[in-house]
Protein backbone atom coordinates (compact mmCIF):
# COMPACT_ATOMS: atom_id res chain seq x y z
CA UNK A 1 0.00 0.00 0.00
CA UNK A 2 2.91 2.34 0.71
CA UNK A 3 4.33 1.80 -2.77
CA UNK A 4 0.92 2.43 -4.33
CA UNK A 5 0.50 5.65 -2.37
CA UNK A 6 3.98 6.84 -3.35
CA UNK A 7 3.29 5.92 -6.98
CA UNK A 8 0.11 8.01 -6.85
CA UNK A 9 2.01 10.98 -5.41
CA UNK A 10 4.63 10.83 -8.17
CA UNK A 11 1.91 10.34 -10.81
CA UNK A 12 -0.09 13.29 -9.47
CA UNK A 13 2.94 15.58 -9.61
CA UNK A 14 3.95 14.45 -13.09
CA UNK A 15 0.39 14.77 -14.37
CA UNK A 16 0.13 18.34 -13.06
CA UNK A 17 3.35 19.21 -14.87
CA UNK A 18 1.98 17.73 -18.11
CA UNK A 19 -1.29 19.63 -17.81
CA UNK A 20 0.55 22.89 -17.21
CA UNK A 21 2.53 22.40 -20.43
CA UNK A 22 0.51 20.16 -22.78
CA UNK A 23 2.45 21.16 -25.91
CA UNK A 24 4.51 17.94 -25.96
CA UNK A 25 1.36 15.78 -25.82
CA UNK A 26 -0.24 17.82 -28.60
CA UNK A 27 2.83 17.50 -30.80
CA UNK A 28 2.98 13.73 -30.30
CA UNK A 29 -0.67 13.45 -31.39
CA UNK A 30 -0.19 15.70 -34.42
CA UNK A 31 1.94 13.14 -36.29
CA UNK A 32 -0.65 10.32 -36.25
CA UNK A 33 -3.35 12.83 -37.17
CA UNK A 34 -1.35 13.92 -40.21
CA UNK A 35 -0.96 10.27 -41.24
CA UNK A 36 -4.69 9.82 -40.73
CA UNK A 37 -5.81 12.75 -42.87
CA UNK A 38 -3.01 12.90 -45.46
CA UNK A 39 -2.03 9.24 -45.91
CA UNK A 40 -5.23 7.39 -45.04
CA UNK A 41 -7.24 8.55 -48.09
CA UNK A 42 -4.57 7.07 -50.38
CA UNK A 43 -5.37 3.60 -49.03
CA UNK A 44 -9.08 3.60 -49.88
CA UNK A 45 -8.62 2.35 -53.49
CA UNK A 46 -6.32 -0.40 -52.15
CA UNK A 47 -8.63 -1.73 -49.43
CA UNK A 48 -9.08 -5.19 -50.94
CA UNK A 49 -5.35 -5.60 -51.58
CA UNK A 50 -4.02 -4.44 -48.21
CA UNK A 51 -6.66 -6.33 -46.20
CA UNK A 52 -6.69 -9.42 -48.44
CA UNK A 53 -10.48 -9.53 -48.16
CA UNK A 54 -10.47 -9.45 -44.34
CA UNK A 55 -11.72 -5.85 -44.02
CA UNK A 56 -14.26 -3.72 -45.85
CA UNK A 57 -12.69 -0.44 -44.81
CA UNK A 58 -9.08 0.70 -45.22
CA UNK A 59 -9.20 2.38 -41.83
CA UNK A 60 -9.78 -1.00 -40.16
CA UNK A 61 -6.23 -1.79 -41.30
CA UNK A 62 -4.65 1.64 -40.98
CA UNK A 63 -5.95 2.89 -37.60
CA UNK A 64 -4.71 -0.12 -35.60
CA UNK A 65 -1.22 0.55 -36.92
CA UNK A 66 -1.49 4.23 -36.01
CA UNK A 67 -2.49 3.61 -32.40
CA UNK A 68 0.34 1.09 -32.02
CA UNK A 69 2.68 3.70 -33.48
CA UNK A 70 1.34 6.20 -30.96
CA UNK A 71 1.93 3.74 -28.12
CA UNK A 72 5.50 3.17 -29.29
CA UNK A 73 6.76 6.58 -30.28
CA UNK A 74 4.66 8.49 -27.78
CA UNK A 75 6.53 6.70 -25.00
CA UNK A 76 9.89 6.09 -26.62
CA UNK A 77 11.09 9.67 -26.24
CA UNK A 78 9.91 10.42 -22.69
CA UNK A 79 13.48 9.86 -21.51
CA UNK A 80 14.37 13.36 -22.68
CA UNK A 81 12.15 14.78 -19.96
CA UNK A 82 13.90 12.64 -17.36
CA UNK A 83 17.30 13.94 -18.51
CA UNK A 84 16.00 17.49 -18.07
CA UNK A 85 14.84 16.57 -14.57
CA UNK A 86 18.22 15.04 -13.81
CA UNK A 87 20.00 18.20 -14.95
CA UNK A 88 17.65 20.38 -12.88
CA UNK A 89 18.37 18.35 -9.74
CA UNK A 90 14.92 16.76 -9.46
CA UNK A 91 16.31 13.23 -9.51
CA UNK A 92 18.81 14.13 -6.80
CA UNK A 93 15.96 15.48 -4.69
CA UNK A 94 14.00 12.26 -5.25
CA UNK A 95 16.95 10.20 -4.08
CA UNK A 96 16.97 11.71 -0.60
CA UNK A 97 13.29 10.97 -0.04
CA UNK A 98 12.15 7.67 1.53
CA UNK A 99 10.01 6.96 -1.55
CA UNK A 100 10.40 3.58 -3.20
CA UNK A 101 12.58 3.63 -6.30
CA UNK A 102 9.92 1.55 -8.00
CA UNK A 103 7.33 4.23 -7.21
CA UNK A 104 9.55 6.94 -8.69
CA UNK A 105 9.50 5.09 -12.01
CA UNK A 106 5.95 3.73 -11.85
CA UNK A 107 4.42 7.15 -11.21
CA UNK A 108 6.10 8.57 -14.29
CA UNK A 109 5.18 5.56 -16.41
CA UNK A 110 1.56 5.76 -15.26
CA UNK A 111 1.43 9.41 -16.34
CA UNK A 112 2.74 8.46 -19.78
CA UNK A 113 0.21 5.64 -20.11
CA UNK A 114 -2.72 7.91 -19.24
CA UNK A 115 -1.59 10.49 -21.80
CA UNK A 116 -1.20 7.82 -24.50
CA UNK A 117 -4.64 6.32 -23.87
CA UNK A 118 -6.27 9.76 -24.06
CA UNK A 119 -4.39 10.49 -27.29
CA UNK A 120 -5.49 7.13 -28.73
CA UNK A 121 -9.13 7.83 -27.91
CA UNK A 122 -8.91 11.23 -29.61
CA UNK A 123 -7.34 9.57 -32.68
CA UNK A 124 -10.14 6.99 -32.82
CA UNK A 125 -12.79 9.72 -32.53
CA UNK A 126 -11.13 11.64 -35.37
CA UNK A 127 -11.25 8.51 -37.54
CA UNK A 128 -14.98 7.88 -37.06
CA UNK A 129 -16.13 10.56 -39.57
CA UNK A 130 -13.70 9.05 -42.09
CA UNK A 131 -15.50 5.72 -41.95
CA UNK A 132 -13.79 3.71 -39.23
CA UNK A 133 -16.03 0.94 -37.92
CA UNK A 134 -14.89 -1.55 -35.30
CA UNK A 135 -16.50 -3.55 -32.45
CA UNK A 136 -16.31 -1.88 -29.05
CA UNK A 137 -14.82 -4.95 -27.41
CA UNK A 138 -11.95 -5.03 -29.88
CA UNK A 139 -11.36 -1.30 -29.49
CA UNK A 140 -11.21 -1.53 -25.69
CA UNK A 141 -8.73 -4.42 -25.83
CA UNK A 142 -6.68 -2.42 -28.33
CA UNK A 143 -6.50 0.47 -25.86
CA UNK A 144 -5.23 -1.97 -23.23
CA UNK A 145 -2.51 -3.06 -25.66
CA UNK A 146 -1.58 0.58 -26.30
CA UNK A 147 -1.33 1.14 -22.54
CA UNK A 148 0.94 -1.88 -22.13
CA UNK A 149 3.11 -0.80 -25.05
CA UNK A 150 3.34 2.67 -23.57
CA UNK A 151 4.44 1.23 -20.23
CA UNK A 152 7.05 -0.92 -22.00
CA UNK A 153 8.66 1.81 -24.06
CA UNK A 154 8.40 4.45 -21.34
CA UNK A 155 10.20 2.18 -18.87
CA UNK A 156 12.94 1.38 -21.39
CA UNK A 157 13.28 5.04 -22.36
CA UNK A 158 13.68 6.10 -18.74
CA UNK A 159 16.20 3.31 -18.25
CA UNK A 160 18.36 4.39 -21.19
CA UNK A 161 18.04 8.06 -20.18
CA UNK A 162 19.31 7.32 -16.68
CA UNK A 163 22.27 5.42 -18.11
CA UNK A 164 23.27 7.95 -20.79
CA UNK A 165 22.25 11.16 -18.98
CA UNK A 166 22.73 13.00 -22.27
CA UNK A 167 20.37 14.03 -25.07
CA UNK A 168 23.28 13.79 -27.51
CA UNK A 169 23.62 10.09 -26.77
CA UNK A 170 19.92 9.31 -26.34
CA UNK A 171 18.65 10.89 -29.58
CA UNK A 172 20.72 8.90 -32.11
CA UNK A 173 20.23 5.70 -30.13
CA UNK A 174 16.44 6.00 -30.11
CA UNK A 175 16.27 7.09 -33.74
CA UNK A 176 18.43 4.15 -34.75
CA UNK A 177 16.02 1.78 -32.99
CA UNK A 178 12.79 3.50 -34.03
CA UNK A 179 13.28 3.32 -37.79
CA UNK A 180 13.73 -0.49 -38.09
CA UNK A 181 10.83 -1.02 -35.70
CA UNK A 182 8.60 1.23 -37.80
CA UNK A 183 9.52 -0.36 -41.12
CA UNK A 184 9.39 -4.01 -40.01
CA UNK A 185 6.28 -3.88 -37.82
CA UNK A 186 3.81 -3.27 -40.66
CA UNK A 187 2.37 -0.21 -38.95
CA UNK A 188 1.61 1.75 -42.11
CA UNK A 189 0.92 -1.20 -44.42
CA UNK A 190 0.53 -4.92 -43.66
CA UNK A 191 3.73 -6.86 -44.28
CA UNK A 192 1.67 -9.56 -46.04
CA UNK A 193 1.55 -7.46 -49.20
CA UNK A 194 5.36 -7.24 -49.35
CA UNK A 195 7.84 -9.67 -50.91
CA UNK A 196 8.54 -12.97 -49.18
CA UNK A 197 12.03 -12.00 -47.97
CA UNK A 198 10.65 -8.87 -46.29
CA UNK A 199 7.87 -10.87 -44.60
CA UNK A 200 10.42 -13.34 -43.21
CA UNK A 201 12.61 -10.49 -41.97
CA UNK A 202 9.66 -8.84 -40.24
CA UNK A 203 8.73 -12.09 -38.50
CA UNK A 204 11.56 -11.53 -36.01
CA UNK A 205 9.91 -8.32 -34.78
CA UNK A 206 7.43 -8.92 -31.94
CA UNK A 207 5.75 -5.63 -32.82
CA UNK A 208 4.61 -7.08 -36.13
CA UNK A 209 2.58 -9.66 -34.21
CA UNK A 210 1.25 -6.95 -31.92
CA UNK A 211 0.09 -4.89 -34.92
CA UNK A 212 -1.51 -7.95 -36.54
CA UNK A 213 -3.24 -8.72 -33.24
CA UNK A 214 -4.71 -5.22 -32.96
CA UNK A 215 -5.93 -5.42 -36.55
CA UNK A 216 -7.64 -8.71 -35.73
CA UNK A 217 -9.31 -7.06 -32.72
CA UNK A 218 -10.59 -4.25 -34.94
CA UNK A 219 -12.15 -6.90 -37.17
CA UNK A 220 -13.82 -8.49 -34.15
CA UNK A 221 -11.64 -11.62 -34.21
CA UNK A 222 -10.95 -11.48 -30.48
CA UNK A 223 -10.25 -15.20 -30.09
CA UNK A 224 -8.21 -15.61 -33.28
CA UNK A 225 -4.60 -16.77 -33.20
CA UNK A 226 -3.41 -13.35 -34.43
CA UNK A 227 -5.05 -11.49 -31.53
CA UNK A 228 -3.85 -14.06 -28.96
CA UNK A 229 -0.28 -13.87 -30.23
CA UNK A 230 -0.46 -10.11 -30.16
CA UNK A 231 -1.61 -10.14 -26.52
CA UNK A 232 1.09 -12.66 -25.62
CA UNK A 233 3.88 -10.57 -27.11
CA UNK A 234 2.70 -7.29 -25.62
CA UNK A 235 2.46 -8.83 -22.13
CA UNK A 236 5.94 -10.34 -22.50
CA UNK A 237 7.38 -7.02 -23.69
CA UNK A 238 5.72 -5.22 -20.79
CA UNK A 239 7.23 -7.59 -18.23
CA UNK A 240 10.67 -7.16 -19.78
CA UNK A 241 10.36 -3.38 -20.03
CA UNK A 242 9.14 -2.88 -16.47
CA UNK A 243 11.78 -5.24 -15.08
CA UNK A 244 14.63 -3.47 -16.89
CA UNK A 245 13.28 -0.04 -15.96
CA UNK A 246 12.81 -0.92 -12.29
CA UNK A 247 16.30 -2.39 -11.98
CA UNK A 248 17.90 0.61 -13.66
CA UNK A 249 15.96 3.07 -11.51
CA UNK A 250 16.93 1.15 -8.38
CA UNK A 251 20.59 0.99 -9.39
CA UNK A 252 21.02 4.54 -10.68
CA UNK A 253 19.01 6.10 -7.85
CA UNK A 254 20.71 4.14 -5.07
Automatic annotation (TrEMBL):
GO MF, any single term: ABC-type transporter activity
Protein's GO biological process: response to antibiotic
Family that this chain belongs to: Belongs to the ABC-2 integral membrane protein family.
Example of a GO cellular component annotation carried by this entry: ATP-binding cassette (ABC) transporter complex
PANTHER family named in the record: NODULATION PROTEIN J
Transmembrane listed as a keyword: yes
Subcellular location: Cell membrane; Membrane
Keywords: Antibiotic resistance, Cell membrane, Membrane, Transmembrane, Transmembrane helix, Transport
Record-annotated ABC transmembrane type-2 domain positions: 23-252
PROSITE patterns reported in the protein's UniProt record: ABC_TM2
Topological type in the membrane: Multi-pass membrane protein
Keyword flag Secreted: no
InterPro entries the record matches: ABC2_TM, ABC2_TM_bact-type, ABC_2_transport, Nod_factor_ABC_transporter
Protein name per Swiss-Prot or TrEMBL: Transport permease protein
Membrane-crossing residue ranges in chain numbering: 21-42, 62-88, 109-130, 136-161, 173-193, 226-246
Source organism of this protein record: Kribbella jiaozuonensis
